[in-house]
Amino acid sequence: MTITHYPKNQSRDGEEEEEELSHECKELLLSLPKEKGWRTSHLYKYQGFWCQASEIQSIISFQRHFQASETDVVLATIPKSGTTWLKALAFAIVNRKRFPMSNNNHPLLTSNPHDLVPFFEYKLYDKHPS
Questions:
Q1: Run of H or E residues at 54
Q2: Strands (DSSP E) along the chain, which ranges?
Q3: What is the per-residue pLDDT for 10?
Q4: Separation CA 32–CA 57 (nearest Å)
Q5: Is the pLDDT of residue 130 over 80?
Q6: How far is CA 89 from the centre of its chain?
Q7: Residues 44, 33 contacting (CB under 8 angstroms)
Q8: Which residues form the Sulfotransferase domain (predicted)?
Q9: Which of 19, 24, 54, 103 has fewest C-beta within 10 Å?
Q10: Residue 44 burial (CB < 10 Å; 0-12/13-18/19+)?
C-alpha cells in the first residue's frame, strides 16, 4: 500500500483552512485552551495534549470509528522517542516472509517507514469527518 503525502491546504497568510473542519470540531475548538502555534496559527489543548485543529478532528474520528481486529498491531510512541526506527522494525518483522531482508526490492530501501506504517491521526483518519 502506498500513501502519498499531500500538504494541508493553507490560506495566503499561511493559516490552516478551517472550512475543512466539521461544525462540531469548530464548536469544540471554541471551548479549548489555545496558544499560538508554530506550524499553524494556533494549538489547542485537547485531552491533555497540544494539537493542531485538524489533528483534533482526526482524533475524534479515530476514537469514534476505529474497530480493532484480532490481527492489528498498534504502535504507540511519544514524539522524539524513536518512532521512525520502531515503525521500520515493526514493518520488517510483520512482513519478514513477504519481503526477506535479502530482497533487493525491500520497501524499506525505497520508502519512509512513516509511509509504510501510517499514523492514524495524520494519514488514516485525517479526511474522515467525525
A1: helix 53-65
A2: 34-36, 42-46, 49-51
A3: 45
A4: 13
A5: no
A6: 19
A7: yes
A8: 71-122
A9: 19
A10: buried
Q: Show Cβ contacts of residue 26 under 8 Å, excluding neighbours closer than 6 positions.
A: 18
pTM, rounded to two decimals = 0.69
CA-wise closest residue to 20 among 5, 7, 2:
7
Q: Please check whether residue 39 is in contact with residue 32, taking contact to mean a CB–CB distance below 8 angstroms.
A: no
- CA distances for 63 relative to 1, 13, 28, 35, 125, angstroms: 23, 32, 15, 24, 10
Q: Taking a C-beta distance cutoff of 8 angstroms, is the pair 55, 121 a contact? A: yes
In this structure, what is the dihedral angle of CA atoms 99, 103, 105, 106, given to the nearest 10 degrees? 40
Is the pLDDT confidence value at 59 over 80?
yes
- Residues near 115 by beta carbon (within 8 Å), at least 6 away in sequence: 2, 3, 4, 5
Q: What are phi and psi of 65, to 5 degrees?
A: -110, -20
pLDDT exceeds cutoff 70 at 129: no
- Beta carbons within 10 angstroms of residue 110's beta carbon: 8
